[in-house]
Write a structure and sequence with these properties.
Elements: E1 2-8, E2 18-24, E3 27-33, H1 46-49, H2 51-55, E4 65-67, E5 76-78, H3 81-99, E6 104-108, H4 115-119, H5 121-129, E7 133-135, H6 141-151, E8 167-171, H7 175-178, H8 183-191, E9 195-199, H9 205-208, E10 212-214, H10 221-234, H11 240-246, E11 247-248, H12 250-257, H13 262-269, H14 273-285, E12 289-293, H15 303-310, H16 313-316, E13 327-328, H17 339-343, E14 359-361, H18 365-371, E15 379-383, H19 387-390, H20 394-401, E16 407-412, E17 424-427, E18 436-438, E19 445-449, H21 462-472, H22 484-492, H23 504-510, E20 512-514, E21 539-540, H24 544-547, H25 568-573, E22 576-579, E23 603-606, H26 608-613, E24 621-626, E25 629-637, E26 645-647, E27 683-689
Parallel strand pairs: 6-15, 7-14, 8-9, 8-12, 9-10, 11-21, 12-13, 15-16, 16-17, 22-26, 23-25
Antiparallel strand pairs: 1-2, 2-3, 4-5, 4-17, 18-19, 19-20, 22-27, 23-26, 24-25, 24-27
The structure holds ligand MGD (2 copies), iron/sulfur cluster and molybdenum atom.
The site of iron/sulfur cluster (SF4) has 13 residues, from helix 1.
């Protein structure tokens, strides 16, 4: 007898889909999108529609293993869980005794969006141990800080409200590729007459489906936003009432915007002056106008400022007042659950260290493994992440992982590039096999999932892994004995009106519960009447707090060092600006090893003139290189990028690539202007035909 059970897609994707799983005799036999979920609306992306191939893949890791070959070789032999946990506990204890507990570095990111297995028992364990803290900056931190500097909180327009828009700007947002459940709302809006414009240096599927694709030079978005403001303010198209009531620093911004006339901005962005004027006028007058901003443009050296500046537009035009207006970068700030009760940072003070440990920025893993001292990193514990493939400056990361004196533990579903370097490799379950509570960063529905099937082999959820390790280490605090349900109840003990009253029982009954951000059936208009959570309570067009960080409190544009307007010496040798945005058929490096992702990340798109100048024809194998390293990709020659820009969709596993490297061998550890984020999309490279 088949049973239909509820699950939630755990992958790092704004959509956080509600999934229905048919289970027969303990085996999942069919998976589909929940038709009753207001955002999932009955479909899944191509990757997860075929998820059972991944769940039941013969390549799944099913047992704990110990390294049997050289680091990186990927040869392992099976051991028992007892032996694995005893070995880990003994090594971590010995390292802590010799170098102090901060010599241990946990490394995790977006494997699962579940609260418990994403940042639950693991955090408690490492806090209590006294391990170095990890600044989880690799994805969104520049944008998070940039957005917060303007509006104070990471909330925005609900996806459901996009149907009311008359103009939709996808700004650095590949909706059809990375946020496909927003697409039906855009389709509906367009059916009712909305225009859909895309601002993106790469002409991808989203751009192809747009009414207007505006190719912008990578890293120049602040200039475009200032140019739009120049036009809007010069023509008196701002909402003076909204500006007066709810913003701070308008006169400073007005003065600054004067420095960005369309002719100048055209030079900086590669967009014709007339197009800048048209875009600005339409944005201010075709109402409601919604901006879907995504994280693409903040993977650039001054990405924090870019997000900060764009986020001012809906305040200037008063677009926040309208259903179908506003802006969405993330909805995650709506989930005001008790993360403090989940992660328990105060446990750091109970560690042998007796103080808060040092913090290591995950973007700088290469540096941390090779250069850090007092103490050096002697143990790396990786889960929910594949740094050998996704972290920048890969050659340095791999050199670090090869260190004989580094003890590396990896918990994984598959033998990833990072797993190849593990001393102890542990099997992890997929989302069908574990209990978790899920937030979302592209909608406002909180979701619960119970296991639909038992864990395959001896796979253990992160919660249970760290529970058992805590026991091994003799940690006696009761938090290490908590059940999943206890942890969820703790998270829900929030007094915030958006969460208060949502119970575990309700979640078990309904699976998905909309946060109480507005009355049921009415749109959530986060800033219709102000309500910004900045220090001033206003939308901060001038953020004095930034001055302390050495950042101009009023938006200003500076080009990335690694760009056509950047370092001249570098540009002379490496004249092409590389971006490496997401592939539709992958989630970062996940899905590299299943059929749907087999080809993803194997190409580099290059303009015909740049290809011709290098004797490169479509389909040629090329070598892409800079001072940091080189990799081989297949050239895709065509109009999808402007002259001087190259685009390699990412991130494939290194071991699936011709010479064992993906594009992260080219990206740098340089940090963004705000938030210490990664600058994946500010990388200068050269391309040549690969020798035979
Ligand atoms: N299919 C799929 N879905 C995913 C992921 C995936 O790998 N694959 N990854 C997930 C993750 S981790 C994240 S963080 C989210 C968000 O992911 P997004 O931020 O939406 O994805 P990106 O591809 O990084 O960037 C979005 C777009 O920004 C463009 N872009 C790059 N540089 C610039 C620039 O300087 N200016 C402008 N205007 N645009 C620029 C890129 O060409 C791309 O089309 O997606 C998630 N969803
Ligand atoms: N060049 C370039 N590099 C990039 C990006 C880019 O656009 N271009 N994007 C960056 C961004 S936005 C991000 S978010 C990072 C993402 O970096 P990561 O978060 O490292 O992303 P993934 O490569 O998807 O690796 C996640 C791993 O977690 C595993 N996993 C999944 N669920 C579980 C679980 O429950 N338990 C355990 N133990 N493991 C699990 C999966 O099998 C997978 O191998 O990459 C960054 N790197
Ligand atoms: S990856 Fe994203 S779109 Fe695909 S099923 Fe998961 S949440 Fe939905
Ligand atoms: Mo991300």
């Amino acid at each position: 007898m088949a049973q239909t059970l509820h699950a939630v897609c755990s992958h790092d994707c704004p959509d956080a889909c509600s999934v229905l799983v048919e289970v027969e005799n303990g085996r999942a036999v069919r998976i589909r999108g929940n038709p009753d979920h207001p955002v999932t609306r009955g479909f899944l992306c191509g990757k997860v529609a075929r998820y059972l191939d991944r769940v039941y893949s013969p390549e799944r890791l099913l047992y704990p293993m110990r390294r049997a070959g050289a680091k990186g070789e990927g040869r392992f032999e099976r051991i028992s869980w007892d032996e694995a946990l005893d070995t880990i506990a003994a090594r971590l204890e010995a390292i802590a005794a010799e170098f102090g507990p901060e010599a241990v570095l946990p490394y995790s990111y977006g494997g699962t969006m579940g609260y418990l297995n994403g940042s639950g028992m693991d955090r408690r364990f490492f806090h209590r141990f006294g391990a170095s803290l990890l600044a989880r900056t690799i994805c969104a931190e520049a944008g998070a800080v940039g957005l917060s500097s303007t509006q104070g909180v990471r909330v925005g327009t609900e996806p459901e409200q996009f149907v009311h828009a008359k103009l939709i700007l996808a700004w650095g947002a590949n909706v059809k590729g990375t946020n496909v459940h927003l697409w039906p709302f855009i389709v509906e809006a367009r059916r009712k007459g909305a225009r859909f414009y895309v601002i993106d240096p790469h002409l991808n599927r989203t751009g192809q489906a747009a009414d207007w694709h505006i190719p912008i030079l990578p890293g120049s978005d602040t200039a475009l936003a200032l140019g739009m403001m120049h036009v809007i303010l010069a023509e008196g198209l701002e909402d003076t009432d909204y500006v007066a009531r709810y913003t701070l620093g308008f006169e400073d911004l007005r003065e600054r915007a004067k420095e960005y006339p369309p002719e100048r901005v055209a030079q900086l962005t590669g967009i014709a002056a007339a197009d800048i004027v048209r875009l600005a006028r339409e944005y201010a007058t075709v109402r409601p106008a919604a901006i879907r901003l995504n994280y693409g443009l903040q993977r650039s050296e001054r990405g924090g400022m870019a997000v900060r500046t764009i986020a001012m537009l809906p305040a200037i035009t008063g677009s926040w007042r309208e259903a179908g207006g506003g802006l969405q970068l993330s909805t995650s700030g709506g989930f005001r659950l008790r993360r403090d009760k989940l992660e328990m940072p105060e446990l750091c003070l109970r560690s042998p260290l007796g103080r808060m440990p040092r913090t290591i920025n995950m973007v700088e893993l290469g540096k941390a493994l090779l250069e850090l001292d007092s103490p050096p990193v002697k143990a790396l514990f990786v889960y929910n992440s594949n740094p050998a493939a996704v972290a920048p400056d890969q050659n340095r990361v791999l050199r670090g992982l090869r260190r004989e004196d580094l003890f590396t533990v990896v918990s994984e579903q598959f033998q990833t590039d990072t797993a190849d370097y593990a001393d102890i490799l542990l099997p992890a379950p997929t989302f069908l096999e574990q209990t978790d509570l899920y937030f979302a960063y592209g909608h406002y529905h909180l979701q619960l999932a119970r296991p639909a099937i038992a864990p395959l082999g001896e796979a253990l959820p992160n919660v249970e892994l760290f529970r058992r390790l805590a026991r091994r280490m003799g940690f006696t605090e009761s938090c290490f004995e908590e059940t999943e349900d206890d942890m969820i109840r703790g998270l829900l003990e929030s007094e915030h009106p958006w969460v208060k009253g949502i119970t575990l029982r309700q979640l078990d009954r309904e699976h998905s519960v909309r946060l109480r951000v507005s009355e049921p059936g009415t749109p959530f208009l986060p800033f219709a009447n102000g309500g910004f959570e900045t220090p001033s309570g206003k939308c901060e067009l001038r953020a004095d707090g930034l001055a302390r960080l050495g950042i101009d409190p009023v938006p200003a544009y500076e080009p990335p060092v690694e760009s056509r307007f950047g370092d001249a010496g570098l540009r002379a040798r490496y004249p092409l600006e590389l971006i490496s945005p997401k592939a539709s058929d992958l989630i970062n490096s996940t899905f590299s090893n299943v059929a749907c992702g087999a080809d993803a990340g194997s190409r580099i798109e290059i303009h015909a003139a740049d290809a011709a100048a290098r004797g490169i024809a479509d389909g040629d194998l090329v070598r892409v290189f800079n001072d940091r390293g080189s990799c081989r990709l297949l050239a895709s020659v065509g109009p999808s990028v402007s002259r001087g820009v190259v685009c390699a969709e990412s991130v494939r596993w290194n071991k699936r690539s011709p010479d064992g490297h993906n594009v992260n061998v080219l990206t740098s550890q340089r940090l963004t202007d705000l938030g210490g984020g990664a600058t994946f999309y500010s990388a200068l490279v050269q391309v040549e035909r690969a020798g035979d």
